[in-house]
Specification:
- The structure is a homodimer of 407-residue chains.
- With 407 residues, chain A is of the alpha/beta class.
- Chain A has 2 domains: 146 residues, Aspartate Aminotransferase, domain 1, CATH 3.90.1150.10; 221 residues, Aspartate Aminotransferase, domain 2.
- In chain A, 38% of the residues lie in helices and 14% in strands.
- Chain A is built from 14 helices and 15 strands.
- The longest helix of chain A is centred in the C-terminal third of the chain and has 22 residues.
- In chain A, 58% of the residues are buried.
- At the A-B interface, helix 2, helix 3, helix 5, helix 6 and helix 11 of A face helix 2, helix 3, helix 5, helix 6 and helix 11 of B.
């Protein structure tokens, strides 16, 4: 029957990471299982944002580019994200959105060879596939989209780039980054990894895995706020060979020399484009700081415990739900997804009961397990409410079938 | 000898736009002549940013995409900017940076013909030229950069796109948008206008001028905050013919259907890319609201008066400075620039005296005239301090020669 309520309470009491929860503002009575879509608000972000708006923008005005370090924020934040992904500080930079960063890396890296194929997975997060289709179109390449289980065998002498999402946004399936990267490199192809559903949750060791190119999202597990700027990673040895297709002034060797000719900056800075979005960067800085003093390995151990608890509870109390996320920690990320023909209505009924999960078309309900601020008792209550909704059939109320724009 | 101090004070007292100044937080004793680089903080932005951070992000979390209208922010803000540029509400959208938006429009519009040349002006703001060079490179086109006075005669049967900045960032020179657009169209070329130094200052009538493609900056005269998102404009009749090279999910016809295939959204929405940057959009919304209830024609009339006052004062009291901005209102924007061999040091000495202007390499000092919050007495004091610095030679102090990263 899964963990009892008393056992869940005891597990929270025994959890050495429990104090980290206080780094976040969590609304009373709400169980938030969507931190993999929008991370919760770090308490420090409130004051930091006020400081940036009132004192830096309001009082120091244009001088803040220097005196408050605005101009270096993309690099400074990149260096703070680097240890979370197993990279060197000069291999990560924060800029633009995940979509735009993907475009930059794909278009730049595609020029490393004459090979015609850009290869990705069917059912990959769609922005990745759409961005790739735009790159293929512009660069007269072919976009090959194949089922997940055919990806590795499809890598061949015509493969220019392999674009994969490390942890699948829906199922939670995780690729073996090291093995896939090696397989691609042995065929002469580069791999671009989308870390959006892994960074801040799954321990990442990009350097050790031989990964050379990656992008990732700032507003999920990194807690950077809605539409936070994204990051990109380029292994040091590749940086000099790549030129961004988006040659904005911030990526110029001398942004303030105002010259007609484009000369890319040294290193990863050349992948900056326009003026850095300071308010978004400030919030992301607060988000990244919520990881201070805790290792990803400990967070991951807690994530595994959370997964086992919710998995066991759902198995025992919600047999109507089919888990589509792999059980083994090495095969998955930090969310758990279930299939149900009325996943949409179920998700809405849960929200009405103050349990926030995510519906993913056509029939998946997804729960993010964020070890920084989620407790075992939270999971117990979430499953308890879900069991009540399923057993009573209350999800059939017409109000739960109303479709909004974002779900 | 220019306006006297008493006359300046009287001019402020008689200025019907004077109360608009109260919409901004302006540090005591500071004279801010750089609102064309970073607009001042709107007072309303402080509370609005807190509301978005604490209540929307903190309390409503992921639900804010619907309940607080996050998902529609790019369109809602575009519709608010539209009247400032003489466009229809469905012709403007807010997204990404000016650089990235330029890339989208250039790469999309270049496909409207097979012509090989992308034409722009030498000395144009460099990010425009660099972005254009990236587009030319990707699309196997030729980037032709010619002196300003040769641009019009260079337009020919090989011209695919003309890329021009409406008001020059350094000199303030303004193109005749209607005449140039007509000249290009009569040769079969499209024009992409960069409105960064005009929007929110110079009255713009894009529809009436026959302009079809434009981008603009959110953090200058629009007061949207450091690194604010930018906007793009596409005339309604062109929207269906253009497809963004950056095919992010927010530009998809059904962003939440999660399909492998890319189908562009109808209308200008297809030029969205990644997840909207909500904190930046919120600040920009406060910025755009500072224009509420005042016509651009009245603001422009005040800008002309401000220009005449500072021009007259500098002519009388700072003969060491050579004005490089055209005198006639139709030939220029809302800033005034002067040449001086030691413009850098002069600018630094002025900052030390709490007058904030802008240095532009190699020898220009630039002052933004922002009619929403600048007064005549401000200009009198600014020139008074500048005259004292020039007459005493105080700019020669070694501390004023120290180069920072951003000036």
């Amino acid at each position: 029957m899964g963990l009892t309520h008393a056992e869940a309470v005891a597990a929270d009491a025994a959890d050495p990471l429990r104090p980290l929860r206080d780094r976040f503002h969590l609304p009373d009575g709400l169980i938030y299982l969507d931190g993999n879509s929008l991370g919760a608000l770090p308490r420090s972000a409130v004051a930091h944002q006020q400081e940036v708006v009132r004192r830096q923008w309001g009082d120091s005005l244009i001088r803040s580019w220097n005196v408050h370090g605005w101009i270096d924020a993309p690099q400074r934040l990149g260096a703070k994200i680097a240890p979370l992904i197993g990279a060197k500080p000069n291999e990560v930079i924060v800029s633009d959105s995940t979509s735009v960063n993907l475009f930059k890396l794909l278009a730049a890296a595609a020029r490393l060879s004459e090979r015609p194929s850009l290869l990705s997975e069917s059912g990959n997060f769609h922005t990745d596939l759409h961005i790739a289709s735009g790159v293929a179109d512009l660069m007269r390449m072919r976009l090959d989209i194949v089922p997940r289980d055919k990806v590795e065998e499809r890598i061949g002498s015509d493969t220019n780039l392999l674009l994969l999402t490390h942890v699948h946004y829906k199922t939670g399936d995780r690729f073996d980054m090291e093995a896939v990267t090696r397989r691609a490199r042995s065929s002469g192809a580069f791999t671009v990894w989308d870390l959006s559903h892994s960074v801040g949750a799954v321990p990442l060791h990009l350097n050790a895995a031989g990964a050379e190119l990656a992008v990732g999202c700032g507003y999920k597990y990194l807690n950077g706020g809605p539409g936070a700027p994204a990051f990109l990673y380029i292994a040091e040895h590749l940086q000099a060979q790549l030129v961004s297709p988006l040659r904005g002034w911030m990526g110029h060797a001398e942004p303030f020399a105002f010259t007609d000719n484009y000369v890319p900056a040294r290193g990863i800075d050349r992948f900056l484009a326009g003026t850095p979005p300071i308010l978004g960067l400030a919030a992301l800085e607060s988000g990244v700081e919520t990881f201070e003093g805790v290792s990803l390995e400990r967070l991951w151990a807690k994530s595994i415990a959370l997964f086992d608890v919710i998995h066991g509870l759902v198995e025992a109390r919600c047999p109507q739900l089919e888990c589509i996320t792999p059980r083994g920690p090495e095969q998955r990320g930090s969310h758990i997804s279930f299939r149900h023909p009325n996943a949409f209505e179920l998700c809405q009924a849960l929200i009405a009961d103050r349990v926030i999960g995510d519906f993913r078309a056509p029939d998946v309900i997804r729960f993010g397990l964020t070890p920084l601020y989620l407790g075992f008792e939270d999971l117990w209550h979430a499953v308890d409410r879900m069991a009540a909704i399923l057993d009573s059939g209350r999800w059939r109320e017409p109000r739960f079938a109303v479709r909004g724009k974002v779900t």
